[in-house]
From TrEMBL:
It is found in: Golgi apparatus membrane. Residues 355-375 are annotated as: Disordered. One of its GO terms (biological process) is intra-Golgi vesicle-mediated transport. This is Conserved oligomeric Golgi complex subunit 5. The keyword Membrane applies. It comes from the Eukaryota. Its main location: Golgi. Keywords: Golgi apparatus, Membrane.
Length: 475
């Protein structure tokens, strides 16, 4: 069929995008058959479809025969264009490949070599840092060893003290107690290195070094326990009242007693500083204001509790044996004098610098007025944490007398309820007891002062003590 000639085939229907072969076949069958016929005659629609296909095939053949040369020319042009594009693309691919190979040779391989060198340098640097930290730990361990030897005595005595830190305090070394504070700082430096957890910090990775693990487990921890025990024993055995009685035996005894009291104060100050430094710390960063020296506070509270309970028991026994009352009151006043001396030492003992805490406020920072400066100075000593732990704002001596008076009243009432000679002796001696107890309080509180710095009147504490003992006896 020539181009432009009419055709009975509806090409528009076939070229419609919504053309459906099933719908077209159904309409063709219905147009050549009756819907009620059984069976249907499919030969006629099939012939129609085959004839249409033959017609379309003839039409395609005619068109391709007429347009063969233009189609061949177009195909040849397309093939030539594709070959030129492929050749140009091949040239570009070859250039890119060569450029990549050159880049790989000049950059990538050099970068890989540089990366290997960087990794090796980092590992070498980490090894050097770890070696330096190990050497510093060993140096600090040697330093701590000499300090422990200075505290406990060298050779077998020092080893025995490490093995039994709770044992009797050795008197080897005249001034061995002076090494306690230095040993505490050495232990803190070691602790700081052992606790390093951030990469780059001094001591990071020391837990992987066997010699450091051995040093920590077999020497540093026992040495720290020994230093703590030695400082606690020093505080628990603190007493200057026994040396004050030596002044009545001549000039040489006075000089010796003064020297012993001075040494006792120095030992206590060193022990308190040591326990402040070695008190356990809560995890995470801690400032000086947040730090609670639990080890120091528990030891000082134990010292106060022991003094109070010992005095209570001694007075309770003396109340049933009045001939021993005078000596007992001397002992009670002596313990109060020790507490007064303890308070004075702690008040004058400034908070030591702790290497693991945030730095304190600079001392040269100007205060708004003189009162603020005095208050800041008061808070910077070791007495305030103890007063806070005891839940008192008064002095330690006042706390001692009031805590001592609290259980005595019940003890006296118990003696009176039993009756007998002890109860009659107490009632007959109430005037003498009133005078002796008041003198005991005033004598034991000598040296204490108020916050204003003037001599304190202790009549209130004396009245409390007299009321606790003489009050239940009646008039």
């Amino acid at each position: 069929m020539a181009e432009g000639e009419p055709s009975y085939i509806d090409y528009e229907a076939f070229l419609d995008p919504e053309f459906s072969p099933a719908s077209f076949a159904n309409s063709l069958v219905l147009s050549t058959n009756n819907a009620t016929d059984t069976p249907l005659d499919l030969s006629t629609p099939l012939s129609r479809v085959l004839f249409d296909l033959q017609e379309i095939d003839t039409h395609i053949h005619t068109l391709t025969t007429k347009s063969a040369l233009p189609l061949l020319a177009h195909t040849q042009d397309q093939t030539a264009s594709a070959e030129r594009i492929l050749k140009e693309a091949g040239t570009q691919v070859t250039s890119v490949t060569q450029g990549y190979e050159r880049l790989e040779k000049e950059v990538v391989r050099k970068w890989e070599a540089a990366e290997e060198a960087r990794i090796a340098a980092e590992k070498s640097l980490a090894t050097v840092r770890l070696a330096r930290a190990t050497a510093r730990c060993l140096t600090l361990g040697r330093q701590l060893e000499s300090q422990v030897a200075e505290i406990t005595g060298r050779g077998a005595a020092g080893q025995a003290a490490l093995a039994n830190p709770e044992g009797t305090v050795s008197t080897t070394g005249k001034d061995g107690f002076r090494a306690l504070e230095r040993a505490a700082y050495t232990i803190l430096n070691l602790r700081q290195m052992f606790l390093a957890s951030a990469e780059g910090d001094e001591g990071y990775g020391l837990d992987r070094v066997k010699v450091i693990r051995t040093l920590r487990q077999e020497f540093v921890i026992p040495a720290e326990n020994m230093v703590k025990a030695r400082a606690q024993q020093t505080i628990n055995r603190f007493s200057i009242s026994s040396t004050s009685n030596a002044t009545s035996n001549g000039q040489s005894a006075m000089s010796s007693g003064y020297k012993q009291a001075r040494d006792a104060r120095a030992r206590l100050a060193t022990a308190a500083t040591t326990l402040y430094l070695l008190s356990p710390m809560s995890p995470g960063p801690v400032t000086t204001a947040e730090y609670k020296p639990e080890l120091l506070l528990s030891t000082l509270q134990g010292y106060m509790h022991t003094a109070i309970m010992t005095s209570v028991n001694a007075l309770a026994r003396a109340l049933t044996q009045l001939p021993t009352m005078e000596r007992t009151l001397d002992d009670v006043s002596g313990r109060c004098q020790d507490i007064v001396a303890l308070e004075a030492i702690l008040r004058n003992l400034r908070t030591p610098t702790h290497p693991l805490l945030a730095p304190p406020v600079p001392e040269d920072q100007p205060a708004p007025d003189g009162a603020s400066s005095a208050a800041a100075s008061t808070k910077a000593n070791l007495l305030q944490p103890l007063l806070q732990a005891l839940d008192t704002t008064s002095s330690l001596a006042s706390y001692y007398w009031r805590s001592l008076a609290s259980p005595l009243k019940a003890r006296v009432q118990e003696i009176l309820s039993r009756g007998g000679m002890s109860a009659r002796a107490l009632r007959s001696s109430r005037d003498r007891l009133r005078t002796e107890i008041k003198d005991c309080v005033l004598r034991g509180s000598q040296g204490s002062a108020t916050d204003a710095g003037t001599a304190r009147a202790w009549e209130m504490e004396a009245a409390v003590m007299v009321s606790a003992v003489v009050g239940p006896l009646g008039r």
